[in-house]
Amino acid sequence: MTISPLFRLGAALLCCILISQALGQDCSCNFHVKGDCQANGNACVCKLPIGPDLTPIDCTKPIPKCFLMKRESNPGKGGRRPKPENALVDNDGLYNPDCEGNGIFKARQCNNTETCWCVNSAGVRRTDKGDKNWKCTELVRTFWVIVQLTRNNTDSIPEADLKKAIADTITNRYKLPAKFITNIEFEGPLIYIDLKQNTTEKTPNDVDIADVGYYMEKDVSSQFNTQCVLASLM
Ligand SMILES: *[C@@H]1O[C@H](CO)[C@@H](O)[C@H](O)[C@H]1NC(C)=O
Ligand SMILES: *[C@@H]1O[C@H](CO)[C@@H](O)[C@H](O)[C@H]1NC(C)=O
Ligand SMILES: *[C@@H]1O[C@H](CO)[C@@H](O)[C@H](O)[C@H]1NC(C)=O
Known about the structure:
Blueprint: H1 5-25, E1 36-40, E2 43-50, E3 53-57, H2 65-73, E4 108-109, E5 117-118, E6 144-150, H3 159-173, E7 181-187, E8 190-196, H4 209-220, H5 230-233
Helix pairs in contact: 1-3
The structure holds 2-acetamido-2-deoxy-beta-D-glucopyranose (3 copies).
């Protein structure tokens, strides 16, 4: 009996959910292989090495993009093999960001230099650059993130099923409530996923759509050692 691609897709997603539950009980970090978690009574307390520091993180949902970018731009010591030149997918947006304690980007970023600029909540530059006196009055919220994926070996899967599998992956793996996935659309070999979340809709506990978008990008380019990877399904 041959297994249809759809079944394989379903099986892979199921496996992914089981793995995260098993890891969760162990008090380990589901969202970063380098997350270091210790059980403390009923709580599971996690930290992530970012540069020379250990930063407290919540390992039950995607780790804020600001922390991840900071980690990437501070590889730290310990003899890590340098990344091959072409391994970094980030399109020239990488800098060493300043993050708030909860992982939100500070409105003004200077990349450890004398040159500063203002960013939005996805950490993307939104103004000209200036000197140290450059003022950024507020962190402008990115309320719409479009994720573009390329289909790979999914031609035989009905679009409705693929749509459901993608939505389920985003809610299960990335913990984004389904109401923030506003559209999934197919155009030739491309899949467009609209994530929308404005200030009034997002509760403090909701994962941010910018963090989800960043995770999807990393998972798809296999930079994270994740056990369930959207890329392997596409
Ligand atoms: C940030 O600084 C690094 C190292 O000085 C540099 O390579 C990189 O281009 C800078 N990034 C931005 C966005 O200015
Ligand atoms: C498409 O999927 C196959 C395996 O199913 C994989 O070997 C190949 O690298 C993928 N191509 C892209 C562009 O991701
Ligand atoms: C946020 O989105 C909701 C639902 O789409 C909408 O009703 C509301 O007006 C929006 N709020 C702001 C401040 O844009």
